[in-house]
Design a protein that fits this description.
Layout: H1 8-13, H2 15-47, H3 53-102, H4 105-110, H5 113-130, H6 133-156, H7 158-164, H8 168-177, H9 179-205, H10 207-213, H11 216-242, H12 244-268, H13 274-315, E1 339-346, E2 356-363, H14 379-386, E3 394-399, E4 402-403
Antiparallel strand pairs: 1-2, 1-3, 3-4
Length: about 400
């Protein structure tokens, strides 16, 4: 979870929104846990012939009151938890875009446009989902599991509750054994999405060249291969995530059947009332959602971790061109600007040949300089170095005698 350190400032700033949302969610869960107790009372009154019109009305009012709590609580946790996740989406996307603006040309030479677009769109969406729905599911999974177990023990005792909870250890093993493979598949899907975005962006921006050279079929085949790869990786992840619900339902179903048989036997010998049986049966059914939620939490946070890891790679990138601590500002009103290149060497990477070698010239104010040469001989590079889009490898570029690396 160390990948989420980047968003800690946002979480601290919005902690009360998350806290209020979680409190509202706990009220909803508590109200849901009390419903089986109302049904227990109603069933016991019916079994022992104590059910009256007044008691029927009491049970109906109790269910109605709990329903109102659930409705109000759901509204507030949606506003505070989902709403805060939307704020996070804005905050993270804005921070990421500003980071792009702070980086220099050397960074963009190494990263494809499609990758950078995927970070701002798909990756940020995954993080938002994990910090919205993921928070809800993890609170539900922990609170509902613990308190459902407590309510079952409170209602029918430890031994009967343990029979109803036979599935819990098996489900825990299933969930945690599938978490790592799911994270790997999620990362593969997001990486391929970047490739797909890049392919579309490059082809759309170069559509005139594609039409001019008549290579539509070639470009279509290239896109089809990446699109197919994206589909394959999505299907791999889907097959893995699709195992969660069926496995949980199957194991929970077996545990439910065992408890029904055990409960009926105890009812026949008179050691378990109809109300207790109804209550625990509802609690067993309620246990299914927290267990599914555990799987969904793993799925959501594994996707979020993979996405956050990709985003953090951008945040840790450093611009090679940085402004000096005490940068000098050139004031045009002070007089003419004198440009001097002094023995300048430059190449775009250590494994590439030199573009400029020992270039020197002086250009006084109001003078013109014509630079001629073939494509790739460094004409544009001279201007880029002058504008300090790159820094020289050796030598100096001076403006009025001041190195451009020291100029604001």
């Amino acid at each position: 979870m160390r990948e989420y350190r980047t968003i800690l400032p946002f979480v601290r700033e919005n902690k009360w929104r998350y806290i209020f949302g979680i409190i509202a969610l706990l009220f909803v869960d508590a109200a849901n846990l009390l419903v089986p107790q109302v049904l227990k009372k109603f069933a016991d009154w019916a079994q022992f012939g104590e059910l009256t019109l007044e008691r029927t009305g009491q049970a109906a009012l109790a269910i109605l009151f709990l329903g109102l709590i659930v409705a109000a609580g759901r509204y507030f946790w949606r506003v505070y938890i989902f709403g805060t996740a939307r704020r996070l989406e804005y905050w993270l996307r804005d921070k990421l875009f500003k980071k792009y603006l702070s980086l220099d040309d050397s960074f963009f030479n190494k990263h494809r446009t499609g990758d950078l677009m995927a970070h701002v769109t798909n990756d940020v969406l995954m993080v938002r989902n994990s910090m919205g729905g993921g928070i809800i599911m993890i609170v539900d999974a922990v609170f509902m599991t613990l308190f459902t177990v407590f309510m079952m023990i409170y209602t029918v005792g430890f031994q009967t509750a343990m029979v109803a909870l036979l599935a819990l250890p098996f489900l825990t093993v299933v969930v945690f054994s599938m978490s790592k493979p799911l994270q790997r598949r999620s990362r593969a899907v997001q990486d391929t999405f970047s490739e797909l975005t890049t392919e579309v962006q490059e082809n759309v921006s170069g559509i005139n060249s594609i039409k001019a050279f008549g290579i539509e079929e070639n470009r279509s085949e290239s896109f089809g291969e990446i699109n197919k790869d994206y589909q394959t990786k999505n299907m791999d992840m889907l097959r893995m995530s699709a195992l969660f619900d069926p496995l949980i339902q199957f194991i929970s179903g077996i545990a439910l059947v065992i408890f029904i048989l055990y409960g009926i036997r105890r009812m026949l010998i008179g050691s378990l009332s109809l109300g207790d049986f109804v209550a625990v049966l509802n609690y067993v059914r309620m246990m299914v959602w927290p267990l599914i939620a555990i799987g969904m939490v793993v799925n959501s946070f594994q996707r979020g971790i993979a996405a956050m890891g990709r985003i953090n790679e951008i945040f840790t990138a450093e611009a090679k061109v940085k402004e000096a601590v005490s940068a000098v500002k050139i004031d045009e009103d002070e007089g003419p600007v004198r440009i001097e290149f002094r023995d300048v060497y430059y190449r775009y990477a250590d494994n590439l040949p030199w573009v400029l070698e020992g270039v020197s010239f002086t250009l006084e104010n109001n003078e013109s300089l014509a630079i001629l040469g073939r494509t790739g001989t460094g004409k544009s590079t001279i201007l880029k170095l002058l504008l300090r889009r790159y820094d020289v490898c050796s030598g100096q570029i001076l403006l009025n005698g001041v190195d451009v690396r020291d100029v604001s």
